[in-house]
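Before the break, one more example. Copy the sequence into your notebook; we will annotate it together after we see the structure.
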Amino acid sequence: MTDRSKPKLLLHVGSHKTGTTSIQSALAANRAWLEAHGIYYPNPRPFFYHATEAHHDLAHALASGDARRMGRAKRFRRHLIEASRRHDRILLSAEPFYRHVLAPLATGEQRPRVPRPIEARRLYIARTAEFLDAFDTEVIVFLRRPDSFAVSLYKSAVVSTPFSGGFDKFIERRNFRVDYKTQIDLFGAYFPKVTYKSYESGLGAGIVETFFDTIGAGSPPSLGSEHLRRSLTNKATLWIDRSRQELNLSRRQVHRRWRFAMLPEAGPLFGPDDGSSLWNSADERDAFIERLAGTMPEGFFPEPRPELPPRAVWTDAEHRAASAAFREWERANATGLRLRELLGVPPYKLDEPAAAGGFLAGVAALFRSGFRQSPGTDP
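Here is what the structure looks like once it is written out:
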């Protein structure tokens, strides 16, 4: 039940793969406009020092319980309480709120037990609710149809987590992120209001516009610089997954393959996704949807296509060709890759940040010169 005596806070938790980066970019681009409409979207950088427009560091701090991180989080909370006196609503956005679990050390036990994932998830939501207890908090979550979400999560897991082993193995695991009823029930147990929307339904009007309408802000003057992020194709994902199994790749090596697979010139190696699926059959897919979305309101998600395209196949010959092309590309672009890694540019960003152009040019010159010193200069 909402508490009108407390300041209002909107907590946008994603979920993942629902246009969250685009939404956050638009929120940051329209901070002044939002404030004129009574909504404060705080800049986290002065408190957490990371160059991000979202509030991931707050979500991370609550998961870890680390004293230094929590010190920053508490300073940020004091700022939010102060800001709530001048604004009708505070808005926070970070998809890790949807996935994080409480770290074992964060329980405060001398010999911490490791709780089951769903219990660790509940403990994390409880801690988040306690941290935001000064506010009347409404959780906002956009949900993607489970079959599409599972494919997207698998592709993300292959490049961002230690997981490898194929899509079938991935969906065998009971992943609470796709168990929407459990997620909604957990949020509802600790927060007075949970608003959930269908991602697919929002695509027609535009996911950013739909989000702004959801928070009652109307259409923003600027949609921000981000667009919906392109995903890896099915075959590109299978290539990286198999490479990880065979080569025990480091994070950097995985990310280089990720970037290569996103390039337009790599398209002929991996093809588009329109003609393939990662599901074995329509029956398997439909049973998965029913199991995980059967409790959602009727019509919440659009119906899947009755026919599935053929399952994606990744042959030995394709694997050899893609791996050889990658090695050649990596050698030819060694300097540029090191620069991107130095700057922390994500693999999915195909263009260099415009603001970094001068810095990139300067560092590139240093790389080309091999950091040679001029005669007579001190080391």
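Residues 234-369 form one domain. The CA atoms of residues 37 and 217 lie 7 Å apart. Try to locate both features in your own notes.
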